[in-house]
């Protein structure tokens, strides 16, 4: 009786997860989608307490309270700009949990067939890599780890560590009752591999990596689901594994990077080597002149980047937009697929500031309009507007689709200082004839622009 | 236990389902959707609870405890963050 109640609940949870994800893939129903999935999770968790023959209930509830409480607290407090690294952390925790399940099951020696042992070990490997890799990804995006570690022979060392992990895994799969030492060594090696694999990847590529680890965690959960004979884990894990893989590919495509390129080339760190000396000089403009240029324009396109979000300038920018529109200027927002830290991240940030959807345009929709725009205002974006991606085959970002800001009649670039962007590549746009630099913190500059427009 | 070809069939069908569900998602929803799928694999909590519930030795209990704790973090954190992001989509739709 209880057994079938549990099975029915797990089945219902699996259905709710799939329907929830389906709803989340359309803006109109997205809000309801997460609630549906949440109900599924709640039901599945509650009936699991009824699983026959279980003990350790007190500790179990304590563990849920500690882990869930900490995640609740941090999740409620984190700023929208820091979302990507929080997703990385929560995802890594899931991978770690899958690895822990494998460890418990292997220690108990309760897995009798070789194929299930193999599934447990592979799941543990994938889950551990997702765990330690996600922690490195978090550290990088959070700014705790500024430099990417790249040295010669790195790939060989990584390969050796991976080989050692596989060797230990092989010993575990073969044994009736795997030894504690081998098991321990296995986990040390796989966790280490996750770290060394992520270390050389540059910050700009992190979104793709986080998405990949998300897919990997799903797969690890599915494998441990097979080991435990738990259909809800198998289905939910596999669905996330394949959906996550597709998402990863979409993201990599938007950045014009292949997945293997992201994982093995160490781009974010080494970029800029292929730089050619950029000719010309940067020309400055002050806020008053910039305000005049925009106020008397017919059409202004605003290109926001992560820098705008860091400066918390999105609300001011929206205020500026409303002022310009009162004066009859047509204002549009142009969003690069990887603006922000992840595809869609900038849309979330603009939505937070209250910018309506119909003012926000994708790269394909807006690029043809730049030549008609009197002013393109770039705020906090850099690599995604670098014409080198179109013109210079030696540039590390060559071939990446960019927003054609250089084709606008005038470009105003709001920037904190003269340094290079996230990827470390010099931006040719800044040196063009029709580009003006407006130095300063995004929030401060936006306030100055608002004040200047009001005085006109 | 779900074994052999039954397991393979489930795996294959679920994989196609995941692919189909995501295939026509607009770019603006990529981040929330990644976060949402991150929440869905929080179902690992169920497995971690079962593993911990049957743990015998102290060592197994400790690992089980860590597993449940991490899994609960995945599920709760994933939900809170996704919900907060999608909340904004609702409000901006109203202002249109």
What does this structure look like?
The complex is a heterodimer of chains A (456) and B (96). Chain A is α/β, with parallel strands linked by helices. Chain A folds into 2 domains: 191 residues, no CATH class; 169 residues, 3-Layer(aba) Sandwich (Rossmann fold). Chain A is built from 18 helices and 6 strands. In chain A, helix 5 runs antiparallel to helix 6. About 2% of the residues of chain A have low confidence. The longest helix of chain B has 37 residues. Chains A and B meet through helix 1, helix 2, helix 3, helix 4 and helix 8 of A and helix 1, helix 2, helix 3 and helix 4 of B.
- The helix content of chain B, as a percent range, equals over 70%
Question: What is the approximate shape of chain B?
Answer: flat
Order of helices and strands of chain B: HHHH
Number of helices, counting only DSSP H or I runs of 4 residues or more of chain A? 18
- Tell me the greatest interface: A-B, 118 and 84 residues
| Strand adjacency order, main sheet of chain A | 3-2-1-4-5-6
By oligomeric state, this entry counts as: heterodimer
Q: Could you tell me how far the N terminus lies from the C terminus of chain A, measured between alpha carbons in angstroms? A: 77 Å
Helical content class of chain A:
55-70%
Total strand segments of chain B = 0
SS element count, helices of chain B? 4
Radius of gyration of chain A: 25 Å
Major sheet of chain B: none
Between the first and last Cα atoms of chain B, what is the distance in angstroms? 52 Å
Mean residue pLDDT of chain B: 87
- What is the SS-derived class of chain B? mainly alpha
Number of domains of chain A: 2
Q: How many DSSP-defined strands of chain A?
A: 6
How does the overall form of chain A come out from the CA principal axes?
A: elongated
Q: Mind summarizing the main beta sheet of chain A?
A: 6 strands, parallel
Beta percentage of chain A is: 5-15%
């Amino acid at each position: 009786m209880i057994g079938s109640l549990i099975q029915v609940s797990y089945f219902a949870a699996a259905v709710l997860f799939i329907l929830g994800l389906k709803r989340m893939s359309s803006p109109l129903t997205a809000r309801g989608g997460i609630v549906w999935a949440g109900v599924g999770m709640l039901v599945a968790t509650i009936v699991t307490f009824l699983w026959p023959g279980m003990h350790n209930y007190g500790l179990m509830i304590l563990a849920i309270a500690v882990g869930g409480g900490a995640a609740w607290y941090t999740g409620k407090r984190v700023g929208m700009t820091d979302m990507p690294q929080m997703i990385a952390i929560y995802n890594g925790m899931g991978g770690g949990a899958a690895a822990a399940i494998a460890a418990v099951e292997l220690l108990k020696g309760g897995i009798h067939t070789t194929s299930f042992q193999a599934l447990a070990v592979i799941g543990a490997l994938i889950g551990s890599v997702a765990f330690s890799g996600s922690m490195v990804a978090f550290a990088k995006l959070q700014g705790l780890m500024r430099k990417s570690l790249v040295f010669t022979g790195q790939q060989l060392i990584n390969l050796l560590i991976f080989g050692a992990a596989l060797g230990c895994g092989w010993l575990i799969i073969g044994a009736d009752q795997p030894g504690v030492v081998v098991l321990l060594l296995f986990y040390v090696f796989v966790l280490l591999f996750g770290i060394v694999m992520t270390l050389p990847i540059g910050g700009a590529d992190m979104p793709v990596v986080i998405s990949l680890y998300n897919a990997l965690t799903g797969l690890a959960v599915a494998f441990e689901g097979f080991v435990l004979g738990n259909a809800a884990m198998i289905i939910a894990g596999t669905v996330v594994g394949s959906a996550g893989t597709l998402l990863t590919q979409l993201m990599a495509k938007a950045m014009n990077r292949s997945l293997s390129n992201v994982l093995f080339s160490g781009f974010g760190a080494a970029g800029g080597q292929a730089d050619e000396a950029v000719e010309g000089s940067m020309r400055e403009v002050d806020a008053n002149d910039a305000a005049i240029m925009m106020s008397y324009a017919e059409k202004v396109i605003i290109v926001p980047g992560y820098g705008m979000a860091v400066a918390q300038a999105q609300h001011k920018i929206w205020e500026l937009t409303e002022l310009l529109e009162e004066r009859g200027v047509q204002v549009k927002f142009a969003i690069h697929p990887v603006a922000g830290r992840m595809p869609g991240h900038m849309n979330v940030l603009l939505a937070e500031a209250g910018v309506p959807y119909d003012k926000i345009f994708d790269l394909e929709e807006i690029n043809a309009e730049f030549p008609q725009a009197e002013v393109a205002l770039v705020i906090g974006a850099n690599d995604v507007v670098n014409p080198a991606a179109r013109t210079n085959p030696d540039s590390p970002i060559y071939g990446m689709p960019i927003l054609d800001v250089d084709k606008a009649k005038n470009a105003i670039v709001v920037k904190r200082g003269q340094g290079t962007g996230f990827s470390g590549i010099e931006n040719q746009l800044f040196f063009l004839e029709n580009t003006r630099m407006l130095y300063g913190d995004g929030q401060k500059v936006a306030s100055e622009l608002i004040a200047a427009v009001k005085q006109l | 236990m779900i074994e052999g070809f039954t397991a393979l069939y489930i795996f294959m069908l679920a994989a196609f389902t995941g692919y189909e569900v995501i295939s026509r998602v607009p770019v603006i929803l990529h981040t929330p959707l990644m976060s949402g799928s991150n929440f869905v694999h929080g179902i690992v909590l169920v497995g971690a609870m079962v593993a911990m519930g049957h743990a015998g030795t102290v060592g197994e209990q400790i690992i089980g405890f860590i597993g449940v704790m991490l899994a609960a973090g995945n599920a709760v954190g994933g939900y809170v963050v996704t919900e907060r992001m999608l909340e904004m989509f609702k409000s901006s739709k109203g202002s249109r």
